[in-house]
Amino acid sequence: MNGYRLKVAVIESAYDLGSVPSLFGHPADYAKFLGIELSLVYKGNLLVVMPAGFGFYHDGRDDRREQTALLRVRVNGASSRTLVGSAIDGMQSLVGTVGPPTAIATSATASTSIVRTQYALLGHTPSGVRLRNDVFVGGRLLRSRSQIVRGDGPVAPGTFILSATIPTARSASPMSCLTPLVDGRAGARSCVSVHRR
Questions:
Q1: What's the sign of the alpha-carbon dihedral 181, 183, 186, 190?
Q2: Could you give the angle at the alpha carbon of 152 between the alpha carbons of 151 and 154, nearest 5°?
Q3: How many alpha carbons fall within 13 Å on the CB side of residue 11?
Q4: Does this model's pTM top 0.70?
């Protein structure tokens, strides 16, 4: 996800911990234990999810950013299904710790002079992210605008409204593309076709 490599361990009960059932309920301790145990074959990011919360480990390096990102996410339940859902939330929060957040354009509609692009912003962004919206028609840039958007959790839905008149020709094939910009760095562009209302 967004170039972020991660292994995830979902722990539903003490039975899942094999020889160290005493670490059940201590996700941070188990993440360190498992990370060291796996270090001969894997030295990357490791996320542990238990009903008690999240643990994170990355081969002994400073992981305060990741730990802070995981504090924003809650584990919702103790079944394997809810733990997997919480793991996904945790992964999306971690994505925000590495470079620009990801904006996924989900749909776009155009009226006479307005293009509305629905999106999901991945990565917690309480301070705001500059999001650029480019509208292309037939491969040529028609209009571009950027604005600050704010997220309220690991996945923040939103709507970007841009003033643009889309030509009525069927061959025009309009597209709306979103690009997050943080500290002068551009994230991955996400585009969708614009449907006329």
A1: negative
A2: 85
A3: 29
A4: no
Per-residue exposure over 135-151, b if at least 16 CB sit within 10 Å of its own CB, e if not: bbbeeeebbeeeeebeb
The residue assigned the tokens 């009226």 is 111
The answer to which of 49-53, 64-68, 78-82, 138-142 has the lowest mean pLDDT is: 64-68
- pLDDT value at residue 192: 94
Measure Cα distances from 148 to 5, 128, 151 in Å. Answer: 28, 6, 10
* Cβ(99)–Cβ(2) below 8 Å: yes
Cα 147 versus chain centre, distance: 19
Query: Smallest Cα–Cα separation from 149: which of 176, 173, 130?
Result: 130
Render pLDDT for 15-72 as a digit per residue (tens, 0 to 9): 999 899 999 999 999 999 999 999 889 888 999 999 999 999 988 777 888 888 898 8
* Bridge partner residues of 121 (DSSP): 103, 156
CA 23 to chain centre: 29
pLDDT, greater one: 171 or 59: 59
